[in-house]
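Q: what sequence does this backbone want?
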């Protein structure tokens, strides 16, 4: 059973910014994940041995901040990816569902007539 059929005569729209972004998303995801983690690692390397309570607090705060930035970045990339997919689907081929016969298709039914 063929549920959806392509609409005859439909012309696809040209690819735009969505494909450029879609192809760059893996690199953007990797870079946005690595940079905060490198920052947290730099704070750990910068911290002096024997760590004082203040230094330990700073390292923990840097870890929390890096985790928060990574999660924020992932949600932003996911949002952009969803937007790209929506635009790709909208620009793709048009489909028409199976139609059904309407009894008054050729002539409008009078407003007071019962179905």
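A:
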């Amino acid at each position: 059973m063929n549920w959806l059929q392509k609409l005859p005569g439909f012309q696809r729209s040209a690819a735009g910014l969505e494909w450029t972004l879609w192809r760059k998303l893996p690199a953007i995801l990797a870079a946005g994940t690595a940079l905060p983690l490198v920052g947290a690692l730099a704070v750990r390397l910068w911290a002096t041995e024997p760590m004082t309570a203040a230094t330990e607090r700073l390292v923990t705060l840097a870890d929390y901040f890096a985790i928060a930035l990574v999660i924020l970045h992932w949600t932003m990339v996911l949002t952009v990816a969803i937007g790209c997919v929506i635009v790709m689907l909208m620009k793709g081929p048009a489909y028409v569902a199976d139609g059904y016969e309407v009894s008054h298709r050729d002539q409008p039914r009078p407003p007071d007539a019962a179905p």
